[in-house]
Amino acid sequence: MKIFVAGATGAIGLPLVRVLRALGHDVTGMTRAGKGADRLRELGARVSFADAFDPQAVRDAIREASPDVVIDQLTWLPANPADIIKSMPDDTRLHREGGGNLLAAAEALGVQRYIVQSRGFYLAALPGQLADEAAALRCDAPGEVGDSARTMAAYENAVMGAASLEGVVLRYGFFYGPGTWYRPDGAIAEQARKNEMSIIGDGNAVWSFVHIDDAIAATVASLTAEPGVYNVVDDDPIAVAQWMPAFARWVDAPEPARISVEAARKAAGEEAVYYHTRLTGASNSAAKAKLGFAPRPLLWKDA
């Protein structure tokens, strides 16, 4: 296939391009100017320097690539995970405006299939239950988390409502593994070793992770699978109070400290409290049934 990947040098974008090229696909990667272009060329991909915020540039890039499939892997994440909340307005704008430009261009130019990265950790579920693909995003979440969820919900609806193309929404869990924050030499491990990682309140929020390579396998499968929404998460949804100490042991770090909700709210904001007390896990049954998804166990669960 001819495939256009936006965000082609990100944590999932670059290894995805590597796999797509290894499978023989003709890939154009959209990225910012810099070293990322050389990495894409090394993989045998074409490079597009279109600015996601420039609708005409995006349209010209997709017209030139003439792809069968557009994959939106755009993200705006900080180098330091401690800055995640600060970076959310930029990331939200990127999905709202940049994603909107990509989708509009794909529709106008007759692209057959459109695949978009969404959130598998902002899904609404009752306490003790997992969210399936019918679950709504948590649009009532506080602050920047709510803004992000509302933007992604609107984007999902636009993709699935587009009559002229086949829409696929991949709701990924938190990425871990090579090139991500969650690995033995990654940014979260560094925080843990510096004793900068704390559990807020009861730490009862349930997180769904996914290994980056498993997420890529699901993305490749979605090229030809039935259009629709899929939760791309592993089989081990796990509470913060469980995964964080186990992760610390896995990377030889001290036991995480505990901090009260009140203290965390003052120090880090309502969004941080939400991440530790309100997130719900997700079910991957549809991905298993229709994408042949077979995720590995969470590597540090039993550390």
What does this protein structure show overall?
- This protein has 303 residues and is of the alpha/beta class.
- The chain has a domain at 2-173 and 210-233 and 283-291: NAD(P)-binding Rossmann-like Domain (Rossmann fold), CATH 3.40.50.
- It has helices at 13-22, 35-42, 55-65, 84-108, 143-161, 187-193, 212-221, 240-250, 261-268, 270-277, 285-291; strands spanning 2-6, 26-30, 46-48, 69-72, 113-119, 166-172, 174-176, 198-200, 206-207, 209-211, 228-232, 238-239, 257-259.
- The strands form four sheets. A seven-stranded parallel beta sheet has the order 3-2-1-4-5-6-11, sandwiched between helices. The protein has a two-stranded parallel sheet with strand order 7-10. Strands 8-13 form a two-stranded parallel sheet.
- Helix 1 links the parallel strand 1 (2-6) and strand 2.
- Helix 1 crosses helix 7 (212-221) and helix 3 packs across helix 4 (84-108).
- The radius of gyration is 19 Å and the shape is globular.
- 45% of the residues are buried.
The CATH architecture category of the domain at 2-173 and 210-233 and 283-291 equals 3-Layer(aba) Sandwich
Instruction: Identify the CATH homologous superfamily of the domain at 2-173 and 210-233 and 283-291.
Output: NAD(P)-binding Rossmann-like Domain
Helix and strand pattern:
EHEHEHEHEHEEHEEEHEEHEHHH
Gyration radius over CA? 19 Å
Mean pLDDT: 96
* Biggest β-sheet strands, sense, barrel: 7 strands, parallel
Beta-strand share of residues: 15-25%
Instruction: Report the count of strand segments.
Output: 13
> For this entry, what is the oligomeric state of its chains?
single chain
Q: Could you name the CATH topology of the domain at 2-173 and 210-233 and 283-291? A: Rossmann fold
Number of helices: 11
CATH secondary-structure class of the domain at 2-173 and 210-233 and 283-291: Alpha Beta
- Strand arrangement, major sheet: 3-2-1-4-5-6-11
Query: Residue share in helices?
Result: 40-55%
What shape does the CA trace take?
Answer: globular
Q: Determine the structural class based on helices, strands and strand pairing.
A: alpha/beta
Distance between the termini: 41 Å
Low-pLDDT windows of residues: none
Pfam family, one: Epimerase
InterPro entries: Epimerase_deHydtase, NAD(P)-bd_dom_sf, NAD(P)-dependent_oxidoreduct
GO molecular function: aldehyde dehydrogenase (NAD+) activity
GO cellular component, one term: cytoplasm
